[in-house]
């Protein structure tokens, strides 16, 4: 199962090399698209840029071995270019945090993290993070772990998207942790250890990035995150069972109601827990859906009034996803209105027409 995640990481890494090492897309570099000559030139350009970057990493390793940290001065006399490169990496880090294109890929972040690279340094105090070997790396990991704790506290889960707009670096860091665990399991050198894994497990960290690999609590938390996004978009948790944008979410919501009912019945097994109930209640989850109404006209009118109160107009789409029941009701009313105007028998009469 690790193969899928590895392939995904590799694909992003390959794509990022085009993004960060060239200003033009790969097909515009040398030769006609698809020609072997053009491909060879592309590969050569990427290889040169990557080799140059890795060479700087090796130089930074030597600097750290000598001074115990990666706090290279901007105008480092022994190697001016290294000082500039370190400054550029911090700049790339700032761009990454803002969600802009950046040269810092997960692999490059890992290499810098392994050295305890200081992404932020207080102005006028370049020795502030001077440390023993490995200490800065621990500080950085702890810093990002705290960011993840804050995310968990705010969202109730640790499913940080790869391109998390609020903090792009956190999404990249989370992805790196999955990668590091896979390396640890393969017996390769890794920044992951059992202590860090336990700390992440305490936040219900999802180690399997592909949905097909998710099970149990990991999958539940992923769906919960999707439900929160639905709530933010439509201001309710009434996901239709056949929600076209996410069929799995519609089925999941129905399942939560069913599991809740089972929990209320003595002797019945249920996957629902108090923790899950609290998380769902925190976003206003609707545990029971009303049975078919005996007065759909009154219910529809009430839904329409609520819609107008919120949006200050009555232009409800027939396919309104925020409340599919209202959308269907409005569609029927429009059809009945046309029938009524044409003198055809309809459920709409003059009294109802006046109310509308």
Automatic annotation (TrEMBL):
Region of interest: Disordered: 14-40
Any one Pfam family match given in the protein's UniProt record, by short name: HA
InterPro entries xrefs: Helicase_assoc
Compositionally skewed regions (Basic and acidic residues) per UniProt: 14-26
Superkingdom of origin: Eukaryota
Domain Helicase-associated: 50-117, 141-205, 219-285, 295-348
Name of the protein this chain belongs to: Helicase-associated domain-containing protein
Classification of source organism: Eukaryota, Sar, Stramenopiles, Ochrophyta, Bacillariophyta
């Amino acid at each position: 199962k690790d193969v899928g995640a590895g392939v995904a990481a590799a694909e992003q890494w390959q794509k990022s090399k085009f993004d960060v090492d060239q200003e033009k897309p790969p097909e515009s570099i040398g030769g006609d698209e698809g020609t072997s000559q053009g491909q060879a030139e592309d590969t050569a350009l990427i290889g040169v840029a990557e080799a140059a970057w890795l060479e700087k990493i090796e130089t930074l390793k030597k600097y750290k071995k000598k001074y115990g940290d990666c706090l290279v001065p901007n105008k480092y006399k022994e190697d001016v270019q290294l000082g500039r490169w370190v400054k550029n990496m911090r700049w790339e880090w700032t761009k990454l945090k803002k969600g802009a294109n950046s040269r810092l890929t997960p692999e490059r972040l890992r290499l810098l993290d392994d050295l305890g690279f200081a992404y932020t340094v207080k102005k006028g105090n370049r020795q502030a993070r001077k440390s023993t070997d490995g200490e800065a790396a621990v500080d950085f990991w702890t810093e990002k772990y705290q960011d993840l704790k804050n995310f968990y506290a705010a969202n109730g889960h640790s499913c940080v998207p790869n391109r998390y707009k609020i903090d792009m670096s956190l999404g990249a860091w989370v992805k790196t942790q999955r990668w590091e665990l896979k390396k640890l399991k393969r017996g390769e050198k890794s920044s992951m250890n059992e202590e860090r894994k336990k700390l992440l497990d305490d936040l219900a960290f999802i180690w399997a990035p592909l949905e097909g690999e998710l099970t149990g609590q990991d999958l539940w938390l992923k769906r919960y995150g999707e439900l929160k996004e639905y709530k933010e978009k439509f201001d309710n948790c009434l996901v239709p069972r056949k929600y076209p944008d996410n069929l799995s979410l519609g089925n999941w919501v129905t399942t939560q109601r069913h599991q809740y009912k089972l929990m209320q019945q003595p002797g019945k097994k249920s996957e629902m827990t108090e923790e899950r109930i609290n998380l769902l209640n925190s976003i206003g989850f609707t545990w029971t859906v009303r049975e078919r109404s005996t007065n759909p006209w009154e219910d529809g009118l009430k839904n329409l009034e609520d819609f107008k109160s919120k949006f200050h107009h009555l232009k409800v789409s027939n396919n309104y996803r925020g409340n599919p029941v209202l959308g269907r009701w409005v569609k029927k009313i429009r059809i009945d209105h046309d029938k009524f105007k044409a003198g055809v028998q309809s459920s709409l009469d003059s009294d109802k027409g006046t109310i509308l």
